[in-house]
Design brief:
Elements lengths: L11 H7 L15 E9 L3 E3 L5 E9 L7 E11 L8 E8 L4 E3 L8 E3 L13 E11 L6 E9 L6 E3 L7 E8 L2
Antiparallel strand pairs: 1-11, 2-10, 3-9, 4-8, 4-11, 5-6, 5-7, 5-9
């Protein structure tokens, strides 16, 4: 007994032209792939004399597509101690969600700081330094995340500034990395 099957005809070339080779669905991307990148740039300067960490207002927001993703956050800016001997600047990164605000660095010293040698003398002891922070974070159960630069002064007697000069650029970038 012979069985005959009929399939609808289609043009293979036309079907290939319909494929979108420029976009691979996110769920099919291999581990380690960058799913999305968001970046913000600022050109204003913020100063504080606060001895507690305060917001700079320099931030980036990201909404992860996958719970298992990692978020890579990168900050590039500069800072200064405003001509004061023995005056220190400390900076950190905060993760802010609808329910929490968390300092990702050390509670007192943040990620790092700018310290002036107390033995220095004179009135022009301004230190201007580049500031860089990189952090890998878990996106688990986080729908929208804000990463923001915070900073503080060691002493309330004088202010510290980020970035070092008016017009210098501050960049905050977040990338979702598929796991």
């Amino acid at each position: 007994m012979t069985v005959y099957a009929n399939k609808p005809e289609f043009n293979v070339r036309e079907k290939l032209k319909e494929l979108d080779y420029g976009h691979v669905p996110y769920h099919k991307m291999p581990a380690g792939s960058v799913i999305q990148t968001v970046s913000e740039m600022y050109n204003t300067r913020i100063s504080t004399g606060s001895t507690s960490f305060v917001s700079t207002g320099f931030y980036v927001e990201i909404s992860p597509k996958f719970d298992a993703s990692k978020i890579f956050v990168s900050v590039s800016t500069s800072g200064n101690n405003n001509n004061t001997v023995g005056h220190d600047l400390f900076y950190t990164l905060f993760r802010i969600t609808n329910t929490t605000s968390l300092n990702l660095g050390h509670s007192t010293y943040g990620f790092a700081g700018l310290r002036t040698n107390a033995a220095a003398s004179g009135t022009n002891n301004r230190l201007e330094v580049p500031i860089s922070m990189n952090y890998f974070d878990d996106a688990k159960d986080l729908k929208k995340i804000k990463y923001e630069i915070w900073f503080r002064s060691e002493s309330a007697s004088s202010s510290v500034e980020i970035p070092q000069l008016v017009g210098c650029i501050t960049s905050v970038t977040a990338q979702e990395i598929k796991q």
